[in-house]
Amino acid sequence: LDVTINNLVVTPLNFVRYNINPNNTGAHGTHPFYLHLAINVPLLYNVLGVIALASFGVMMYRFASNEYTNLPRAQSFVGLMICAIFFPIVMLSFINHQEPRFLIPITLPLILLHAPKLKTGLCSSYPFKERSRLKEMFYSYVLCTQASARPLLRLWYTFNIILTIFYGFVHQAGVYQLAAHMSQQLAATPSTTQTYLITS
Question: Which residue ranges run through the membrane (predicted)?
Answer without folding.
Answer: 43-64, 76-95, 155-176
